[in-house]
Amino acid sequence: MINPLAATVLRQIPKEFLAGIATGDYRVLGSVIQSVGSGRIVGHLQETSALISLLGSPVLAVAKIGLKVADVVQNEQIKAAINVVQSLQVASLALSGISIGVSIAGTALLIRRIAKIETKIDAIMPELAAITRGMEVLRAERIAEDFGRLRILAEQVEEAWLPSGTNGEWIDIARESHFLAGSFENRVGQIDAKSGEAFVDAYALASGLRVTARLAAGQDEMARNAAVDRATKLFAFGEPVRLGQLALARMSRDTDAASSAWQERLDTQAQSLRDGVAVAQQRVMAAAANAETLEELARQGIAGRDWIDAAREERQSPVIVLRAG
Q1: What is the Cα–Cα distance from 28 to 36, expressed in whole angstroms?
Q2: Same domain, 131 and 84
């Protein structure tokens, strides 16, 4: 089957894009490549099956820690794919579970991401137990039930990609993921920003599946609306997640704020929170960029289902590219 986007989608990153990123003239924000000077978006990225395969192996994670790609793998195809991901500076995004474009992850990867979120939830269960009285949505059994439904949803997504899958199945997935996203959203506001991050992760995953399902069902306008809604809510969730505020909230009030010891402890707290805050910011930017990419598809008259089919059919390049305008 030849995808109708074959003549439009680029499977090689244009050299001027890579050169611009290397010099700092361009930057990658989620699924978009933007000119730093003018702010103009010049290209749009979409993760492919090749990137999903990389994420399912330890190769990309090993390469990210600073080893040369040649020292990690010998397979030239894999080596080329890793080089592209590193050149685009999106390795951290991908390894953090933040999709580059529309999520097309299979069941195995989705289940792995769900398990990581559940580990974060387990870590804050003592805190949740202390505030669950009168808050039904924070009861442990309710949380476990929703994560169970999220796992089933991941399996249904895999089935819906099969040739026998129907639009009706995708619509059911979109509705169920919308419901679960709402459940996780309700929990975010019930606890402090740092502890609420686990539920923000769950919301991002469920709401991302909603966008994918609407595109797969051929409901592009609904997908664009869902993407904008997702970006807006993730931005709102991220507002309290500011490094200084979180660090200060963790500081003891029994020490003179003007002392050197207090400043040293504040610096230590800030350092421990830095990575988490960076991931939260990247997640917001990726969601906003994703919404913009869907708008660009509409401007160019490209069907969302064709876009994700092209990504799923690609087996060599970790991303496909669409020039803006």
Answers
A1: 10
A2: no
> In 3-state terms, what secondary structure has residue 5?
coil
- pTM of the entire predicted model: 0.83
Taking CA 131 as the corner, what is the angle to CA 128 and CA 134, rounded to the nearest 5 degrees? 120
Task: Say if 254 falls within a structural domain.
Answer: no
Note whether 138 and 192 are within 8 A (CB): no
State whether 127 and 47 are in the same domain. no
For 228-254, what is the mean pLDDT? 64
Sheet containing strand 319-323, edge to edge, reads: 26-29, 32-35, 41-47, 319-323
- Structural contact between residues 179 and 153, judged by C-beta atoms closer than 8 angstroms: no
The tally of domains found in the chain comes to 2
* Helices 260-299/193-216 angle, 10° precision: 10
Q: List CB contacts of 41: < 8 A, sequence separation 6 or more.
A: 32, 33, 34, 35, 292, 296, 324
Together in a domain, 230 and 282: yes
Name the nearest CA neighbour of 105 among 96, 117, 97: 97
In the chain, % of residues over pLDDT 70: 77
Q: Do 153 and 294 reside in the same domain of the chain?
A: yes
User: Mean pLDDT for the chain?
Assistant: 82
E strand segments, the chain: 26-29, 32-35, 41-47, 319-323
For tokens 């509409």, the residue is 298
CA distance 117 to 113: 6
Distances (CA, A) of 69 to 13, 17, 50, 58, 83: 18, 21, 17, 13, 7
* 273 domain residue, yes or no: no
77-134 pLDDT tens trace: 777 888 888 888 887 788 778 889 999 988 989 999 999 999 988 888 877 776 665 5
* 3-state SS class at 46: strand
Please tell me whether residues 62 and 168 are part of one structural domain. no
Residue 309 in tokens: 């089919």
Identify whether residues 190 and 312 lie together within a single domain: no
